[in-house]
Request: fold
Amino acid sequence: MAVSIEDHSYEINNQLSLDTNIQKASENLHKKMKEILKPVEWKVYELLYIEHKTEEQVCRILKFKYDKKAKSTYNKQLKNIQKSIIKKAKQCLANGEVDL
Reply:
């Protein structure tokens, strides 16, 4: 049951705030990823996650084959690189190697 804030100001004012600076955390993650990724993985990471390019744009820039009519939405080579990047990022975060 929801209660009004006015009646519970003590609890609200004494809660620990979890101020997470998203911008700083993402910069820390980008620095760590640049250290651990292979050059082609870093280029894909940079294009997809920093510059926010589409998979099709990344394929064009890196000269990977891209077929819009294919059943899969993008190139298998790009998909494998993305899996590798995500695996390494999760591993860094799980090991506490990145300051959040």
Q: What stands out?
A: The CA atoms of residues 8 and 14 lie 10 Å apart.
